[in-house]
Design a protein that fits this description.
The chain is α/β, with parallel strands linked by helices and 291 residues long. The chain is built from eleven helices and eight strands. The protein has two domains: 207 residues, 3-Layer(aba) Sandwich (Rossmann fold), CATH 3.40.50.1820; 63 residues, no CATH class. Helix content is 46%, strand content 15%. 49% of the residues are buried.
Length: 291
């Protein structure tokens, strides 16, 4: 797969499709982009070019842990630069869960580079913020405190990053554990502050002021709640909302975690929804200026 050095970190990426408007999609958590290949192939059949990439600290890309308010700020700015290198701006930006957070922040930080948002399984609420802050950051802080960077390297996630790119071990081992803990602590605290926001990654004021069209597909679990998706759709002025893709449950009886098989089995339906949104937007929206 091709690679590009972006802001000091080598990112693994892939472009599916060879014509049409650009779309950049990102998966949830810190997973590799591989799970989005089937959906991207369906979008490419309709005449779109889809950019997939492994974010820093994910998949086959390099590890790059740097002091910044939030990890998804790094991810959003990395993607902006990568799109520029590939001539892919302006771009439709989308993703699920952490990928949706990246997309929202991309639009807030680089609005002139975005043509629209494609969001599914958006994250919100106190339960989600607390659970994910521990999963993404708190757990690794504890590892570094008790076992140093060797323990971080031995963790399931970073162990996979090292297996995919052995040089990642050296990048991690050269970090001072105290610096690692401090950065993870900053990322954790800022993630926890999002517990009261409509969606992790954006305030109500930011969503109301967003000048970008959005297509939003609701989740059905306690981290990606339908309530959160409805809030986002209600706040973004030009939004399109869908809550009929996966099983629907009462708000007090949601799944404890998302069902990957259910979601991946809905790729065709998701592609149909996004293509409908894209075609409508391409017909009606004025040409955006690349940034």
């Amino acid at each position: 797969m091709p690679e590009a050095k972006v802001r000091g970190v080598v990112l693994n990426y892939e472009v599916i499709g060879d014509r049409g408007a650009w779309i950049a999609l990102t998966p949830g958590s810190r997973r590799s982009y591989d799970e989005l290949v089937p959906l991207s192939q369906q979008l490419a059949k309709h005449g779109y070019r889809v950019l997939l990439h492994d974010r820093r600290n994910c998949g086959r890309s390099e590890v790059g842990i740097e002091a910044q308010d939030a990890e998804h700020e790094l991810w959003a700015d990395d993607l902006y630069e990568l799109c520029g290198m590939l001539g892919a701006r302006p771009v439709y930006v989308g993703g699920s869960s952490a990928g949706a957070r990246l997309a929202l922040l991309f639009a807030l930080r680089h609005p002139s580079a975005v043509k629209g948002l494609l969001l599914w399984r958006v994250t919100g609420g106190q339960h989600a913020a607390q659970k994910l802050a521990q999963q993404y950051y708190g757990a690794y802080m504890e590892m570094a405190k008790t076992g140093g960077m060797a323990a971080v390297c031995a963790s399931e996630h970073f162990g996979q990053c090292i297996k995919a790119r052995p040089s990642n071990r050296d990048r991690l081992m050269t970090m001072n554990p105290d610096d690692f803990i401090r950065i993870m602590g900053t990322w954790r605290e800022n993630f926890l502050k999002a517990a009261t926001l409509p969606v992790v990654g954006a305030t109500e004021e930011q969503l109301r002021a967003m000048p970008i069209s959005a297509c939003i597909i609701a989740g059905n679990d306690v981290v990606h709640t339908p309530v959160t998706a409805r809030k986002v759709a209600g706040l973004i002025p030009d939004s399109e909302f869908h809550d009929d893709v996966v099983r629907k449950f009462a708000d007090d009886a949601l799944l404890e975690s998302w069902d990957p098989d259910e979601w991946f089995g809905k790729n065709q339906r998701i592609a149909e929804i996004f293509v409908g949104f894209l075609k409508k937007h391409e017909r009606s929206a004025p040409s955006a200026l690349a940034s």
